[in-house]
């Protein structure tokens, strides 16, 4: 029984060690590939977007109030 437990612990240690080594190599490989891609194909800096022109809204319009009320009612119904 003692031999079986030592073999189980030995297998567990080697298995977990293999996983830790593999994940460590994976982290370094991913970082290396990220740096390599950044050097090979640098990302272009996008120009800031111009704000879209907003049409002025007539305040106090009865039609606007009716449309907004209908939209709120439709939203709350679902």
From TrEMBL:
EC number(s): the record gives 7.2.4.2
Query: Known Pfam families for this protein?
Result: OAD_gamma (PF04277)
Cofactors that this protein relies on: Na(+)
Q: Which GO terms describe its molecular function?
A: decarboxylation-driven active transmembrane transporter activity; oxaloacetate decarboxylase activity; sodium ion transmembrane transporter activity
What does the record say about its membrane topology? Single-pass membrane protein
Q: So what does this thing catalyse?
A: oxaloacetate + 2 Na(+)(in) + H(+) = pyruvate + 2 Na(+)(out) + CO2
| Membrane-spanning intervals of the chain | 12-32
The subcellular location is:
Cell membrane
Keyword Repeat present in the record's keywords: the answer is no
Cross-referenced InterPro entries: Na_pump_deCOase, OadG
- Name the Gene Ontology biological process terms: sodium ion export across plasma membrane
Keywords, A to Z, come to: Cell membrane, Ion transport, Lyase, Membrane, Sodium, Sodium transport, Translocase, Transmembrane, Transmembrane helix, Transport
Give any Gene Ontology cellular component.
plasma membrane
Partners and quaternary state? Heterotrimer of an alpha, a beta and a gamma subunit.
Q: What does this protein do?
A: Catalyzes the decarboxylation of oxaloacetate coupled to Na(+) translocation.
Family label: Belongs to the OadG family.
Give the matching HAMAP family.
Answer: OadG (MF_00404)
This protein is called Probable oxaloacetate decarboxylase gamma chain
């Amino acid at each position: 029984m003692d031999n079986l437990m030592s073999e189980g612990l030995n297998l567990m240690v080697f298995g977990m060690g293999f996983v830790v080594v593999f994940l460590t190599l994976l982290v370094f490989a991913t970082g290396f590939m990220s740096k390599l891609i950044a050097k090979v194909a640098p990302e272009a800096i996008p120009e800031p977007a111009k704000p879209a022109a907003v049409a002025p809204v007539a305040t106090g319009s009865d039609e606007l109030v009716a449309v907004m009320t209908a939209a709120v009612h439709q939203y709350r119904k679902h």
